[in-house]
Specification:
Helix content of chain A: under 10%
Radius of gyration of chain B: 14 Å
Number of helices of chain B: 0
Shape of chain B: globular
Radius of gyration of chain A: 13 Å
Oligomer: heterodimer
Strand content of chain B: over 45%
Structural class of chain A: mainly beta
Order of helices and strands of chain B: EEEEEEEEEEE
Largest interface: A-B, 27 and 24 residues
Number of helices of chain A: 0
Chain lengths: 114, 111
């Protein structure tokens, strides 16, 4: 019963490097999300995908790209990492309709850009 | 204006106290409402859903006022283990379903 799985759990990048954060869910959820959380701050939505094949910008999309590869997987890419992108990144998923639309989270990726 | 706003906190309360968290949301088309709990350096986890009729789970009571676009969480008889950040959460389906989190309110319960 894996739920939402994120990889990697930790990453250190140099400024300008690129990387992709992976996320997969096994709950047959329609919607998937990427959030970032800076120290002492709340969750801010980067991008979301309401269904397979669709993606939309959230509150803080600049510097990121996403791919909804299939229903299970939603990846987040940093093309040229900047120190301002140092944060904890959470992937989440949920159903979009019905009674149970609460979001379930992965354990987070702690990213440091130096 | 942020889509979901919460009391900034932190709240520092003694064990046994009753504490109330408030939250407002800006979009009247918001569909579902939740309270999440987040422990330090951990992922958020669902605490409880919030229904128009109000709902209770042990020491926790959540209420929703759609007319005022207001959500509350009441914790009675606070325990040390209640120390965490409490996040107000709203879902929207406006051209795509999404889940919006408030910034959270930090609670410290002290012996």
């Amino acid at each position: 019963n894996a739920g939402v799985t994120q990889t990697p759990k930790f990453q250190v990048l140099k400024t300008g490097q690129s990387m992709t954060l992976q996320c997969a869910q096994d709950m047959n959820h329609n919607s998937m999300y990427w959030y970032r959380q800076d120290p002492g701050m709340g969750l801010r939505l980067i991008y979301y995908s309401a269904s397979e094949g669709t993606t939309d910008k959230g509150e803080v999309p600049n510097g990121y790209n996403v791919s909804r590869l299939n229903k299970r997987e939603f990846s987040l890419r940093l093309e040229s990492a900047a120190p301002s992108q140092t944060s904890v990144y959470f992937c989440a998923s949920s159903f979009a309709t019905g009674q149970n639309t609460e979001a379930f989270f992965g354990q987070g990726t702690r990213l440091t850009v130096v | 204006r942020k889509e979901v706003e919460q009391d900034p906190g932190p709240f520092n309360v003694p064990e046994g106290a009753t504490v109330a968290f408030n939250c407002t949301y800006s979009n009247s088309a918001s569909q579902s409402f939740f309270w999440y709990r987040q422990d330090c350096r951990k992922e958020p986890k669902l605490l409880m859903s919030v229904y128009s009729s109000g709902n209770e789970d042990g020491r926790f009571t959540a209420q929703l006022n759609r007319a005022s676009q207001y959500i509350s969480l009441l914790i009675r008889d606070s325990k040390l283990s209640d120390s965490a950040t409490y996040l107000c959460v709203v879902t929207l389906n406006t051209g795509g379903f999404k889940t919006i989190f408030g910034a959270g309110t930090r609670l410290f319960v002290k012996a």
